[in-house]
């Protein structure tokens, strides 16, 4: 998420707010929500302060105007750099002097972060797990649901491992459905805990909201998969989880991160999928994100995607023959052959996406996922060159 | 009939045309459109009469029939349903004991933390608060923002209505709410 460094006064606890302009406060006011009112002149500040002393408690202000900031007796944030848009849902961390943008309507991708704990330890993990109890994130996820003004069509749930929430995950689904009846959820999970039939029933039975289950699979034998996720028994558990998902009619996308040991067996893995898991809707073939554990396991994770072009084409063909859609993600279009380009998606979230110098005059730039903004600290999927035909 | 056909062809020009023969060329001649026939559709007001439940001049009958307030241009426009209010409370799990305020691990949404207003009064309170905020923002209201339609609030509404050339009655009529820019609850 975007983090903005700010000055602030009058804030005690971490809390979620919706950004609202001064003129729209009347139209949007609800007493179960918290608002950060955008004020840029002292006159409006005076009016707000009067309203506050007349019974409108819990008024919070955000401004880029230093005079407003110094004059205010109400809790107030000073924005120096960084931008905030109307209707953004933000969290204010007073002890860190930071505003985090948790949700922005204009983003292509929306993500809700549920926990940083995980029961796996993947070699290329982009979000290395921590063991502490972070259940406050669940409360925050509910607050985000409440504070979003216009329902997005799709929102992503991620972590860590969301299934570690147990049956609370189902309650979270129910809550999101209540506030956003038509929303769809993309859930990133290793599916391992769904091998427990009781939990599968608790989470999946009578589930009304549409959840797309995005589950990674890295090998067609236990030792191959368990090696990549660094967890013995994971392969068996994930397969059982997938079968339980299928029993409850849940849509599944398998995810394969293209690191070296996986690319070595990719066609065989896709063959395994097409024969044993024919019910999956899609298989995502994903460029490795050069961050987190991937940087520590660079010898395994850094590959030149262009070198593996024939392997990718073979894998895509196997999947297509079984009516499973291949989806290429996090791979710039210049790294793949033109036959595969139609399967590529713009998958990198807005706030961490960028292009390289070489992309300037590329004719397919607008369709391209681009690169992760931290590629300069890590590596690029392959040599970047502009596409001309 | 001819006018009706013209409207239909506007839509058909965007659709693939289905005929019995796979390769037949379109059999409907598309008439050219002149600018007179494309009148702009008027913008819908923020609130319609049917949305405004608390305008005191109407009897509080059911709102299931949205009749007699359609705009005349365009066809088949219906007022969108208002968003469902979150009245549902799932069974609450046991709450974690936590020292920091506002840091519980419960998932189920807590009921609104407002004053002890009755369920039907809640929405009215919010609407009145919105009106009070709007009037305060215009420096027309200086009383307590409490969601209660008292004499101060009514006076402020009247001042506003007078300034806008609306009927001065101190009530939250649909025109008043629209002029204030406050959505009815």
Give me the strand/helix succession of chain A: EEHEHEHEEEEHEHEHEHHEHHEHHHEEE
Number of helices of chain B: 4
Average pLDDT level of chain A: 94
* Helix fraction bin of chain A: 25-40%
Number of strands of chain B: 0
Strand-residue fraction of chain B?
Answer: under 5%
Label the structural class of chain B.
mainly alpha
Return residue spans of chain B where pLDDT drops below 50 for at least 5 consecutive residues: 1-24, 57-119
Radius of gyration of chain B: 25 Å
The N- and C-terminal alpha carbons of chain B lie at a distance of: 42 Å
What is the count of helical runs of chain A?
13
Structural class by SSE content of chain A: alpha/beta
Distance between the termini of chain A: 35 Å
Give the SSE string of chain B. HHHH
Estimated share of beta-strand residues of chain A:
15-25%
Oligomer: heterodimer
Poorly predicted spans of chain A: none
Largest interface: which pair?
A-B, 33 and 38 residues
Which range best describes the helical content of chain B: under 10%, 10-25%, 25-40%, 40-55%, 55-70% or over 70%?
Answer: 25-40%
Can you summarize the main beta sheet of chain B?
A: none
Q: What strand order characterises the main sheet of chain A?
A: 1-5-4-3-2-6-7
What does this structure look like?
The complex is a heterodimer of chains A (about 400) and B (about 180). Chain A is α/β, with parallel strands linked by helices. Chain A is built from 13 helices and 16 strands. In chain A, strand 6 and strand 7 (about 100-105) form a beta hairpin. Chain A is globular. The two termini of chain A are about 35 Å apart. Chain B is elongated and about 60 Å long. Chain B is mainly α. The interface of A and B includes residues 15, 50, 136 and 142 of A.
